[in-house]
């Protein structure tokens, strides 16, 4: 009798394979990850306003800390030193807003009072120049109708006192919160940094402290250099406005100085347009000379003052500064636009330190002096193209093409 080969019993159709041991743990981890991200996003949405206030306070503390450290080295306690620096900064801001507000109110009142006379003069000039018959009475009635609509809208806005009062209280509360956070971040800066470094390994501590030191130096230096340029700009424009006998000279000079320095690219044109318009009310020649002075001063500042003052801090390219403001406004609206310049300055410094750079080969396209062309491509064999350290003279065009083909 032959022995039968052993065989396994066939599996039943309803039998299931055992679950892998790692699958329940992976499912639990996935659920916890999704829940953690959901809670983090919910907290971020709820605390978004607080995070923006903390971010503003952090960069204000970085901007004020060089002055606080200067006073602290002269035996000032950090608390009183921070209070003194913040008081000076708040006083300058309050002076700017007060003077600008009084100028704006006086200018609007003077414009409204002079509007009928300006309208009649303009109508007379148009009728005499173009042989027309426009009636000043009709135009003044239209202006009165528009002013009536404005008054109606103003009365409706004034009726909503509760909404305006709530907005004012929110602004005051946010300002006090920023001031409080700025004071503590600046006055207790060493303790705050020690607390952060206590949870980091030694190598990471050195990198964090190095980055923090760069942020303090470059942010504070950039803000102070722009403030010095704004002071010089305001003084020069004040003298020009006094010589041209333009009203509100002090307020207009502050306006030009602050906007031209702290709003990149477009701030120069916005700041300079207002003095020209105010001078135009005094006469066309005053406006023309004001425009000439603003143009000449901007060239003097761009090529003489700014390179000397910002040489030891950070000189941002106008395109980089303008792009930073646009990016900041897109991310955080108005606070982002205000923080864009110090953030961009710090990032530019970080990139310049941590990015490795290589020797640049010589080429006519890299020479800003000579324009590219047949004459620029011709290289004298005995004369090097550039004697700057780290830049080698270019090879002939034939060898460049050969190397490019091999690559």
UniProtKB/TrEMBL annotation:
The keyword Transmembrane helix applies. Residues 375-385 have a biased composition (Basic and acidic residues). It holds the Pfam family AI-2E_transport. Residues 366-407 are annotated as: Disordered. It comes from the Bacteria. The keyword Transit peptide does not apply. One of its GO terms (biological process) is transmembrane transport. It is found in: Cell membrane. It is a multi-pass membrane protein. The chain crosses the membrane at residues 22-44, 50-71, 83-105, 161-186, 228-256, 276-297. Keywords: Cell membrane, Membrane, Transmembrane, Transmembrane helix, Transport. One of its GO terms (cellular component) is plasma membrane. Belongs to the autoinducer-2 exporter (AI-2E) (TC 2.A.86) family. PANTHER family: PERMEASE PERM-RELATED, TRANSMEMBRANE PROTEIN. This is AI-2E family transporter. It comes from Nocardiopsis ansamitocini. The lineage of its organism: Bacteria, Bacillati, Actinomycetota, Actinomycetes, Streptosporangiales.
């Amino acid at each position: 009798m032959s022995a039968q080969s052993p065989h396994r019993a066939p599996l039943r159709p309803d039998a299931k394979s055992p679950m892998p041991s790692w699958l329940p743990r992976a499912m639990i981890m996935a659920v916890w990850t999704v829940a953690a991200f959901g809670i983090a996003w919910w907290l971020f949405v709820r605390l978004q306003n607080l995070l923006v206030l903390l971010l503003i306070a952090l960069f204000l503390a970085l901007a004020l800390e060089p002055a606080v450290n200067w006073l602290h080295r002269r035996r000032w306690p950090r608390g009183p030193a921070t209070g003194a620096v913040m008081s000076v900064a708040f006083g300058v801001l309050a002076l700017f807003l007060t003077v600008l507000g009084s100028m704006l109110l006086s200018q609007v009142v003077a414009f409204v009072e002079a509007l009928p006379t300006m309208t009649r003069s303009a109508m007379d000039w148009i009728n005499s120049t173009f042989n027309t018959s426009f009636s000043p009475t009709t135009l003044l009635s239209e202006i009165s109708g528009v002013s009536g609509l404005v008054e109606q809208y103003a009365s409706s806005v004034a009726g909503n006192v509760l909404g305006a009062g709530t907005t004012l209280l929110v602004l005051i509360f946010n300002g006090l919160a920023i001031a409080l956070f700025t004071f503590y971040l600046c006055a207790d800066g060493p303790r705050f940094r020690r607390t952060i470094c206590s949870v980091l390994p030694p190598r990471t501590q050195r990198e964090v402290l190095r980055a923090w030191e760069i942020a303090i130096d470059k942010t504070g230096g950039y803000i102070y250099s722009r403030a010095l340029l704004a002071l010089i700009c305001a003084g020069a424009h004040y003298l020009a406005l006094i010589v041209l006998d333009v009203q509100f000279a002090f307020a207009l000079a502050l306006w030009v100085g602050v906007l031209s320095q702290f709003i990149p690219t477009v701030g120069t044109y916005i700041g300079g347009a207002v003095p020209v318009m105010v001078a135009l009310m005094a006469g066309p020649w005053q406006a023309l000379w004001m425009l000439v002075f603003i143009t000449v001063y901007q060239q003097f500042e761009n090529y003489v003052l700014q390179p000397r003052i910002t040489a030891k801090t950070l000189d941002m390219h106008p395109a980089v500064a303008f792009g930073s403001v646009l990016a900041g406004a897109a991310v955080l609206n108005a606070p982002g636009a205000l923080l864009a310049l110090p953030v961009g300055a710090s990032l530019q410094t970080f990139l310049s330190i941590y990015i490795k750079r290589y020797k640049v080969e010589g080429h006519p396209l890299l020479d800003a002096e000579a324009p590219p062309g047949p004459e620029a491509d011709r290289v004298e064999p005995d004369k090097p193209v550039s004697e700057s350290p780290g830049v080698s003279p270019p090879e002939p065009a034939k060898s460049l093409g050969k190397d490019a083909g091999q690559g």
